[in-house]
TrEMBL record:
UniProt keyword Methyltransferase, yes or no: yes
Any one GO molecular function term: S-adenosylmethionine-dependent methyltransferase activity
Gene3D superfamilies xrefs: Vaccinia Virus protein VP39
Gene Ontology annotations of biological process type: methylation
Protein name per UniProt: Methyltransferase domain-containing protein
Keyword hit for Transferase: yes
Keyword tags: Methyltransferase, Transferase
Length: 265
């Protein structure tokens, strides 16, 4: 990732209040990933794109020795405030990790590495730092699920991505993961799961929460801030999206893909 792209990504995730999103909406994903990856005492674990530690913290609480890495130091600083024993926080680029080859027993990412724009580079780093026979575990939003559809809705209003970048929700497509990891992994398991979100009383409340708190949504609105008609159009599209996903009781089910594999070799 170029320095300019890194700087923009750091600023995007530092904007708003992602720690609130992590604690109020997506907290259950971390423990689910830790369980699926079989993390336990004595393991050396790396969490890539750890944010405030949704997966790193429960991993450390199993007795594992965990390194939480993220490109955005503001998120690491929040997580570090309530850090359990055995957890280290490190600023790192998912596409160029500052760790030795085969350094970890388990490498995980909970809706983190999927936002690194250059997928092949990021996947290669996950494989490189995992020891042969070790586990790679991922929880990623699917293209078909609510968050994947939210990104599709926002795309026409967003600034053009860097050349060669790929959309984040592709990491929730098993075929895309197969193309990224190839024969570098064995024993692949994939499972589609849903996260029940009942935080919002109305579809408009969802939209306004994401406009205020979620970095990617904030960035898109900033891109169209000087065009009131486009702002109004995106406002309406995000409300319509939430309404389509309402389960009938004010809640939504957000689909994600749980992926685990063994590092070959």
């Amino acid at each position: 990732m170029t320095t300019t792209v890194k700087t923009k990504h750091r600023a995007m995730w530092a904007s708003g209040d992602y720690p609130a999103v992590a604690s109020e909406l997506v907290a259950p994903l971390g423990p689910a990933l830790v369980e699926a990856a079989g993390i336990g005492p004595g393991q050396k674990v790396l969490d890539v794109g750890a944010g405030t530690g949704n997966a790193a913290v429960p991993a450390a609480r199993t007795g594992a020795t965990v390194t939480a890495s993220d490109l955005t130091p503001e998120l690491l600083a929040v997580g570090e405030k309530n850090s359990p024993v055995g957890l280290t926080w490190t600023e790192a680029d998912a596409e160029d990790l500052p760790f030795e080859t085969a350094a970890f027993d388990t490498v995980i990412s909970c809706i983190g590495v999927m936002f690194a724009p250059f997928h092949t580079a990021a996947a290669g780093e996950l494989v490189r730092v995992c020891r042969p026979g070790g586990t790679i575990g991922l929880a990623n939003w699917t293209p078909e699920g609510f968050i994947g559809q939210m990104f599709a809705t926002m795309k026409p209003y967003a600034a053009p991505p860097p050349p060669g970048a790929q959309p984040p929700p592709l990491w929730g497509d098993p075929a895309h993961l197969a193309s990224l990891f190839g024969d570098h992994v064995t024993g692949v398991t994939v499972e589609r799961r849903s996260l029940r979100v009942d935080h919002f009383r109305t579809a408009a409340a969802f939209r306004d929460y994401f406009k205020s708190n979620y970095g990617p949504t904030i960035a898109v609105y900033r891109n169209i801030a000087d065009d009131p008609a486009r702002v109004a159009a995106l406002d309406a599209e995000l409300v319509a999206l939430a309404e389509r996903h309402d389960t009938g009781d004010g809640a939504m089910d957000w689909e994600y893909l749980l992926y685990t594999a063994r590092r070959a070799g």
